[in-house]
Design goal:
Endonuclease III, domain 1, EC 4.2.99.18, HhH_base_excis_C, 2 domains, DNA-(apurinic or apyrimidinic site) lyase, alpha+beta, DNA repair, disordered C terminus, hydrolase
Length: 412
């Protein structure tokens, strides 16, 4: 059995600076799983367990034992008895805790009325500082996909190709597979059997490109030098050029263009990797959700096609960068989360915590009132209508009045 931390360790951080229940399930990372009130994921050679309350973030780490290290053929390293647990340093880097999120929210709220309206219900959303390789492969899987299926694919990759770290409460945890593990000739066919579809080809080809055609460490050379990988405190040192030139200063644009050369990587995937895997805060991934936001809230002209050209992608990104500044991708993630159906309820009923109980208590009663209006009014409509009410009372009364008005209009 792996060595488990004796007790939970506390990292002081409030919910406005970090909310893991939102950050870990809003489409950034796809391998965190929740067990009751505890989040778990294999990360950087250990199994991380997280939970949170109003006072702080609590963590503990399970490291692989000697048997697991031996079975991994050198991929893993065990934590010796005298070694220092660096999990706190890892978490500070992984969640970008050096950044003052409250100050950023204040800035975006001053500059953007739409952000100011929605942000109070979505505080504590931070961009994760992920491993670039994992972000690359997971966002290749995101093409024409949803969060649930992407998570299933990421889990299958770990189970079939990643080294086993250990087991907690009967659940086995594997680390994310290396490029070498996914570059084997048999990988594409196997991934198709596992349900990856056309993405299987992109994953295999990208892994082969990194292993056979790119210099060692090429992907990390695209990283923002001011954003070291999690667990590393020093800025990224450039050991190799990104291209054939002797020197190449990394930039967001350089990283974006280089990523576009990989199989299965379009503008949106490139920006997801640049933002969440390489630390470029100005990267703004544009997908259907972000395009809906741009059209609905920022006066972009609606187009009939669901496929975005690179020109449209760049225009939307440039607009948000000019509005929100060097961390535009962070601000975009807040509005992106607000636009997801799974989070849409957080935008309703914003009266405050003190009224939450009364809203829940009135739910059944007010559904009954609406049904009575439709059944006992002067006109009985043929169209049967069911309404799930999860908003405040004054809003729901408006719905009832609107229904009655429509009925009168039909009679007239």
């Amino acid at each position: 059995m792996s060595r488990l931390a004796a007790q939970w360790q506390k990292l002081p951080v409030n919910l406005k600076e970090l909310c893991i229940d939102t950050t870990l399930r809003c489409g950034q990372s796809f391998r965190w799983r929740k067990f009751d009130d505890e989040w778990r994921c294999s990360l950087h050679g250990r199994i991380l367990s997280l939970k949170q309350d109003a006072e702080g973030l609590y963590y503990k780490a399970t490291f692989p034992d000697k048997a697991a290290v031996a079975a991994s053929k050198g991929v893993l390293s065990s934590m010796g008895e005298d070694a220092v647990d660096d999990t706190e340093t890892l978490l500070r880097g992984y969640f970008h805790l050096q950044l003052d999120l409250g100050a950023l929210y204040d800035q975006w709220s001053r500059d953007d009325a739409n952000f100011r309206k929605k942000a109070p219900q979505f505080s504590g959303i931070r961009i994760l500082n992920q491993d670039a390789w994992e972000a690359l492969i997971c966002f290749i899987c995101s093409s024409n996909n949803n969060i649930s299926r992407i998570s299933q694919m990421a889990h299958k990759l770990c189970v079939h190709y990643g080294p086993l770290l250990g087991t907690i409460d009967g659940e086995a945890f594997h680390d994310f597979p290396s490029p070498t593990a996914l570059a084997a000739p048999s990988v594409e066919a196997h991934l198709r059997q596992l349900g990856f579809g056309y993405r299987a080809k992109y994953i295999a080809q990208t892994a082969q490109t990194l292993c056979n055609d790119k210099p060692n460490g090429w992907l990390e050379q695209l990283r923002n030098p001011d954003c070291p990988p999690p667990g590393q405190t020093e800025p990224v040192k450039l050991k190799a050029a990104v291209n054939d030139d002797d020197e190449c200063t990394p930039s967001y644009k350089t990283a974006h263009e280089q990523l576009l050369l990989l199989s299965g990587v379009g503008p949106k995937v490139a920006d997801c990797v640049a933002l969440m895997g390489l630390g470029w805060g100005e990267a703004v991934p544009v997908d259907t959700h972000v395009w809906q936001i741009a059209v609905r809230d920022y006066k972009f002209k609606k187009i009939a096609s669901k496929t975005f050209s690179k020109a449209i992608h760049d225009a939307v990104g440039d607009h948000f960068r000019s509005l929100w500044g060097p961390y535009a991708g962070w601000a975009q993630s807040v509005l992106f989360t607000a636009n997801l159906k799974s989070f849409s309820e957080q935008l309703k009923g914003v009266a405050g915590d003190s009224e939450d109980k009364s809203v829940k208590t009135d739910m059944k009663l007010e559904i009954k009132e609406e049904e009575e209006v439709q059944a006992t009014g002067d006109i009985v409509t043929k169209r049967k209508r069911k309404t799930v009410v999860k908003v405040e009372k004054d809003v729901k009364v408006t719905v009832v009045q609107e229904t009655r008005t429509r009925s009168k209009r039909r009679r007239t």
